[in-house]
Structures are given as C-alpha cells and as structure tokens.
Amino acid sequence: MLNYYQSVVFLGAFGICVVAGIDPDKKLLAEGIKFAAECASTDGIKFGLCAEMYQEGANIGDSKYDECKCWISCVAKKMKVMKEDGTWDMDGVKKIIDGLQHPEWKAEAEKVLPMCKEASGGTKCDPGFNAFVCVMKNSEKAKTYVMQMLKAMAGLT
C-alpha cells in the first residue's frame, strides 16, 4: 500500500504524462489527482483490488471492494460534484463539464452525462460508484485512462 507521499509523487508523475493529451484541462486534472491521492492515503486503498474490481466477471457486489467504492465518492465530494449525503450536485458536475477546454473530453463528458446522471442507489458509497461504473461502461476514453492509472498504481504497492 502506498503512503500519502508515494501516492502524491506517483499521481503527480502520472498526471504529467497524461497532461500531454489533456493540456488545456491540466488544472482540473491536477486537482483530481491531488484529491485521488488524498482519498487513497486516508482510506488505505489497495489499487490492485480496485483494478480487479473492473475486470470482466468481477462480482462488484463483493464487500472486499467497498474501500474502492468509497474512494470514488471521496474524490467526487472533494471535486464538489457530490453532496455529503451521496447525491449528485448537478450544478457542480455541469460547472466542471462547462469548464473543460479539451474538445474531445468535453464532448465525451456531454455524451455520458445524460446516460449516467441518474445512477444512484444503494447506501453509503454506492451512488458514486454506480455513476462511475456507468461512465466506465459508456466511455472508452474514461475506462482506458482509469485502468492505466489503477494498473500502474497496483504495480507500486
């Protein structure tokens, strides 16, 4: 498991590599990476387990994945796209989408939002997780990016 310092260093390095493809949105990306590192450090995330959760055939209802589900909600709350009660702050979501500068990522977000904005249900961390699963199913760009990050982080733990 990575400590906070290792998480920040890794996510920072990973972010620098990704920024080449999303340069106009580097401030938002950096903020997301920072929050992901903070939440991972606080919650003791096992990145290999989180990567496993998204593999074909994984039983995402298994309680062993609960930490990963809560990690997503933690980041969403820090990004101000989810309220403390686990419901989506659509004004916050739209603000981020409206602020995207990279045309491909903005178009992708605008395509996926209508499909995933109603994803909720469950308790505690499930609403954030359910929306994230929806995005992963409907956006090959998002899925590729997230899986690369999780696999790279799993190799460091």
UniProtKB/TrEMBL annotation:
GO terms for molecular function: odorant binding. It comes from the Eukaryota. InterPro entries: PBP/GOBP (IPR006170), PBP_GOBP_sf (IPR036728). SUPFAM superfamilies: Insect pheromone/odorant-binding proteins. This is Uncharacterized protein.
